[in-house]
């Protein structure tokens, strides 16, 4: 009588124990990595992700500049035990979290320095709590790409409505530890109505802005990445001046160019200032140029008009005086 013989594989208790020790070690190391990055996992989603998800706490549109310009200098500071955070000075010291008073349409330019030993980021919000709802033009870096100690940044905020706004550190938890100050905005002053476009002045400007990207494609910019010299330069012209922008796509993605009044609205390109378009963008290595006449005085933005790219960093200020 024939019987089928089958091989039966077994392991020893010692081998099983070693395998369990290895699996336990993997779990411990993975858990340590996960919880060491807890601030990152719980931070706000990237602006482009929030926009695609339809997330909107409020509708803060950039105001129209009235001609009044304010420069505000702020420094991130920390107590020696890192439990108390603030701007300019710690609680009880002169200059602690200064209140900024402005009117609708005033251009507030923030010059921010990380004078601490931790990582920080900056922005203006109308929300009384948390770190969401940041006005895009006011942001300096982000929780996922913060200012390192000693780094600086510049941004601007033009309030479009009366009320109380807040400048904060946008790294989760830092506002709650004290990095928050008020911006009190009053009504626009008499005689500060937006001005009409001037007649052609005969003055011509040539500007160059090239599309660049970080190696992981998460950060986009013009000319240089954040923290590098030449990053998203500000341009100032007079109403009626003729302006030529030239650009080269030095990245590996597709890009397009235009001047807009709202960096979140990439469909509203002004003054026939477009170079290519989201539907027909510049491919890697391609270049283009455009010439137009600057319109009414105000603060505008040059951006990449491919959806989401301005929110990832491809935006700079274009000031018409």
UniProtKB/TrEMBL annotation:
GO terms for MF: copper ion binding; electron transfer activity
Q: Which residues cross the membrane?
A: 21-41
SUPFAM superfamilies of this UniProt entry? Cupredoxins
Q: Which residues form the Blue (type 1) copper domain?
A: 233-321
Q: Coiled coil as a keyword?
A: no
Give start and end of each Plastocyanin-like domain.
97-187
Assigned keywords, A-Z: Copper, Electron transport, Membrane, Metal-binding, Transmembrane, Transmembrane helix, Transport
Give the domain of life. Answer: Archaea
State whether keyword Metal-binding applies: yes
Kindly name one Pfam family recorded for this protein: Cu-oxidase_3
Q: Which InterPro entries does the entry link to?
A: BlueCu_1 (IPR000923), BlueCu_1_BS (IPR028871), Cu-binding_ET (IPR050845), Cu-oxidase-like_N (IPR011707), Cu_oxidase_CS (IPR033138), Cupredoxin (IPR008972)
Query: Which PANTHER family does UniProt cross-reference here?
Result: AURACYANIN-B (PTHR38439), COPPER-RESISTANT CUPROPROTEIN COPI (PTHR38439:SF3)
Specify the protein name.
Answer: Blue (Type 1) copper domain protein
Its source organism is Nitrosarchaeum koreense MY1
């Amino acid at each position: 009588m024939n019987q089928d013989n089958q091989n039966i594989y077994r392991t020893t208790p010692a081998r099983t124990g070693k395998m369990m020790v290895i699996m336990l070690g993997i779990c411990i190391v993975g858990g340590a990595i996960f919880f060491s990055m807890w601030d990152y996992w719980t931070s706000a989603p990237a602006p482009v992700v929030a926009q695609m998800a339809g997330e909107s706490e409020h509708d803060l549109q950039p105001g129209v500049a009235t001609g009044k310009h304010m420069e505000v200098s702020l420094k991130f500071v920390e107590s020696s035990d890192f439990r108390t955070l603030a701007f300019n000075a710690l609680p009880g010291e002169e200059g602690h979290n200064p209140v900024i008073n402005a009117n609708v349409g005033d251009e507030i330019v923030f010059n921010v320095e990380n004078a601490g030993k931790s990582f920080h980021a900056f922005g203006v919000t109308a929300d009384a709590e948390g770190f969401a709802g940041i006005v895009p033009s006011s942001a300096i870096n982000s929780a996922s790409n913060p200012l390192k100690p000693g780094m600086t940044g510049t941004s601007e905020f033009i309030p479009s409505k009366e009320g109380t706004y807040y400048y904060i550190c946008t790294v989760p938890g830092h506002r709650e530890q004290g990095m928050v100050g008020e911006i009190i905005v009053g009504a626009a002053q008499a005689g500060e109505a937006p001005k009409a476009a001037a007649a052609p002045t005969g003055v011509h400007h040539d500007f160059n802005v090239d599309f660049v990207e970080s190696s992981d494609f998460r950060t986009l910019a013009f000319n240089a990445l954040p923290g590098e010299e030449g990053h998203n330069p500000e341009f100032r012209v007079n109403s009626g001046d003729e302006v030529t922008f030239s650009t080269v796509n030095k990245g590996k993605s597709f890009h397009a160019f235009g001047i807009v009044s709202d960096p979140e609205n990439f469909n509203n390109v002004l003054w026939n200032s477009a170079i290519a378009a989201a539907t027909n963008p510049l491919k890697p290595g391609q270049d283009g140029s455009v010439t137009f006449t600057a319109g009414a005085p105000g603060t505008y933005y040059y951006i990449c008009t491919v959806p989401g790219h301005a929110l990832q960093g491809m935006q700079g200020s274009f000031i018409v005086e």
